[in-house]
Amino acid sequence: MTRSLLSISELGEAGIRRILDLADHMAEVNRRPNPKVPALRGKTVCNLFFEDSTRTRLSFETAAKRLSADTMTFAVSQSSLNKGESLRDTIETIAAMGVDAFVIRHGSSGAPWQLGQWTDASVVNAGDGWHAHPTQALLDMYTVRTALHRREGFDGVRVAIVGDIKHSRVARSTSAAFRLLGADVTFVSPRTLLPPVHDEPSTARLDDVLGDIDVLYLLRMQRERMNEALVPSLREYTMRFGLTPARAARLGEHVLVMHPGPMNRGVEMAVDPAELRGNVITKQVANGISVRMAVLFDLLGSGSESSLAGGIDA
Ligand code: CP
Predict the structure, then answer these.
(1) Residue 308: its pLDDT value, please?
(2) Which among 134, 184, 207, 276 is least buried, having the fewest CB atoms inside 10 angstroms?
């Protein structure tokens, strides 16, 4: 049966742990002088990005190449979509060329599920609308697991996710993954940017939680929300929810500072992150390659950790 990665809830706790364990092996591959292994030789991965991306697109491409898969990158702006070809016909056309996995980012929530109806290939959700960004959540979990040496789980780890929770697919997927691994998550957000229904406790006062957390996860302030009058001004947002020098000074030495990128310097990140002791933002980016290698291997390789040796032995 074809397997896909569409959401964190479908993956579940056991699935998250399986991917993170595989990512340890991929991180070892990535530390080698020649970080390339034959694990997915003969497989083809097609990247379909209907929305802009730097990190996710490049890391999926790199991940596939490091596993020796062939890659196809679909350029929306140069495609026959512009001649009126439907998305379904586009997918079926590409699939006919022989694709084992589609990696899709799309502005519409649910697009990866729809794609799965039109192809027998595996589908990986690389971000759909406001809905989900499961591989971001997985690389975030891997980053916390390695930085805090918490292989067994996140019981007792206190996480504040700060910013526009309502419109953030990252917040939805990452909070779900933290919860499944046992962390306590608090949403810190203006009321206008909180989802109407959520399981996490919430506050509009970042200063109240700063002294009691292990992970500070800042979200990108989406500037277009200003036009919707959901935030009075960027300046006020920074004053209430930004990581300013004063707030950075109050963070415990052990606190990890995370951001999915791209970040707005001077808005949610009002300090130089390079000067923060607990900054793991570039580690998140680097871990994205290992984690996406793990995801592709999980879907297209023989799958289990025990069967890795033939594919990734040096
Ligand atoms: N975090 C993230 O999805 O970044 P990109 O939009 O650059 O892929």
Answers:
(1) 65
(2) 207
Q: Output the pLDDT for position 231.
A: 81
CATH tag, 134-284: 3.40.50.1370
- Identify the helix (H) or strand (E) that includes residue 294: helix 281-300
Nearest CA to ligand 1 atom 3: 56
Q: What pLDDT does 303 receive?
A: 54
Q: What are the pocket residues of ligand 1 if the criterion is a CB atom closer than 6 Å to any ligand atom?
A: 53-56, 127, 136, 260-262
Residue 306 is predicted with a pLDDT of 52
The CA 170 to ligand 1 mean position distance, Å, reads: 10
C-alpha–C-alpha distance, residues 4 and 2, integer Å? 7
Q: What is the mean pLDDT of each run of 10 residues along the chain (314 residues)?
A: 91 98 98 97 97 97 98 93 95 97 97 97 97 98 98 97 96 98 97 92 96 97 74 90 97 96 95 95 98 98 63 66
Atom of ligand 1 nearest to the CA of 56: 8
Of 3.40.50.720, 3.40.50.1370, 2.60.40.1120, 2.40.50.1020, which CATH number belongs to 8-133+287-311? 3.40.50.1370
Q: Quick one: tokens of 185?
A: 């998550």
Q: Collapsing DSSP states into helix, strand and coil, what is residue 93?
A: helix
Query: What 3-state class would DSSP assign to 73?
Result: strand
Q: Name the residue of 52, 56, 58 to mutate for ligand 1: max ligand atoms within 8 A of Cβ.
A: 56
Distance CA 115, CA 110 (A): 9
